[in-house]
């Protein structure tokens, strides 16, 4: 049960300073976050797309405390869209955004986040790509889904994320699985109370399969966000049973995790999209990657010991 401990550490300024100061940290972080600027990330984008992969790109950073910071986050995404336009990638690279970056938690945050994210969605549509709204902790979801619904009025390709560990998600999935929808299903990476979320891995896995069945049976476009070999196999079988062609769903995995599997799925004709984050405010994102998968924590610990 290390996950909740790591997630708690992700909110600790003292632990943030300790980890950030460790000499080995940058080397390990680079496994998950391959750059801090658009210029640094462009070679990664080219490399992945040249290898037959697609991307969804995330500018990391969630600790927004002022409207000015939210506007800066918007502008960082607009810079990314401009660079993707120059690369002429089209749908090979799309965007993932957390509404907390756009001011969702501030006073008047729902309206502020919508105002900030809309220009990003517009700019993405103008170059032939789209945006997916990432799910955050359960207290933010009603706002996220409302913004998603509003954006889809003009940009129906706008996607959203649902989290299998939340009790509410099966109902959300049935509601969202309509024609033209794009829904990414993940297990969930926030510390949630037992009143709203499953706490045991086997419960979460069962919920994931139930929700994935609903998405595959629906009329939308499921995006399977998982590194779990068993769930990947189940997703392939559910797609076959639902009569879906290879371009009617996709797999999504994080940059730096199971890279060989990325290439294997792509070589079999599956759409395989790599969730690729970049930016300077990497700490929260990095700690959630450690919390999600014990192997990530072991990798970090071994690196700390070997370099200590």
From TrEMBL:
Sorted alphabetically, the keyword list is: FAD, Flavoprotein, Nucleotide-binding, Oxidoreductase, Proline metabolism
Q: What is the E.C. number? A: 1.5.5.2
What pathway is this protein a component of? Amino-acid degradation; L-proline degradation into L-glutamate; L-glutamate from L-proline: step 1/2
| Required cofactor(s) | FAD
Decide whether keyword Nucleotide-binding is in the record: yes
Family annotation (InterPro entries): FAD-linked_oxidoreductase-like (IPR029041), PRODH_bac_arc (IPR008219), Proline_DH_dom (IPR002872), Proline_oxidase (IPR015659)
Q: Top enzyme class of this protein?
A: oxidoreductase
Pinpoint the Proline dehydrogenase domain residues.
45-301
Per its UniProt record, what Gene3D superfamilies does this chain match?
A: 3.20.20.220
Q: What does it catalyze?
A: L-proline + a quinone = (S)-1-pyrroline-5-carboxylate + a quinol + H(+)
Say if the entry is tagged with keyword Nucleotide-binding: yes
- What is the protein named? proline dehydrogenase
């Amino acid at each position: 049960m290390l996950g909740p401990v790591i997630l708690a550490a992700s909110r600790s300024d003292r632990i943030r300073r300790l980890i950030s100061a460790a000499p080995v940290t940058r080397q390990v972080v680079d496994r998950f976050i391959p750059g801090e600027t658009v210029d640094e990330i462009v070679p990664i984008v080219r490399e992945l797309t040249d290898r037959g992969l697609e991307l969804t790109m995330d500018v990391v950073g969630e600790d927004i405390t002022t409207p000015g910071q939210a506007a800066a986050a918007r502008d960082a995404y607009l810079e990314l869209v401009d660079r993707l336009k120059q690369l002429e990638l089209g749908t090979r690279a799309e965007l993932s955004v957390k509404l907390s970056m756009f001011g969702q938690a501030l006073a008047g945050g729902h309206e502020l986040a919508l105002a900030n994210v809309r220009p990003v969605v517009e700019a993405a549509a103008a170059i032939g790509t789209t945006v997916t709204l990432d799910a955050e902790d359960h207290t933010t979801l009603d706002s996220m889904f409302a913004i998603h619904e509003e954006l889809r009025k003009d940009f129906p390709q706008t996607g959203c994320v649902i989290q299998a560990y939340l009790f509410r998600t099966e109902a959300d999935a049935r509601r969202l699985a309509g024609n033209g929808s794009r829904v990414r299903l993940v297990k969930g990476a926030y510390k949630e109370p037992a009143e709203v979320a499953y706490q045991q891995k086997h419960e979460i896995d069962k919920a994931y399969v139930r929700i994935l069945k609903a998405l595959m049976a629906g009329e939308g476009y499921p995006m399977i966000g998982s590194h779990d070999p068993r769930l990947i196999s189940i997703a392939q079988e559910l797609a076959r049973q639902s009569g879906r062609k290879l371009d009617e769903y996709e797999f999504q995995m994080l940059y730096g995790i199971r890279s060989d599997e990325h290439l294997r799925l792509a070589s079999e004709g599956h759409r395989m999209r790599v969730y690729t984050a970049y930016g300077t405010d990497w700490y929260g994102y990095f700690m959630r990657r450690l919390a999600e998968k014990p192997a990530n924590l072991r990798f970090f610990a071994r690196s700390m010991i070997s370099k200590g």
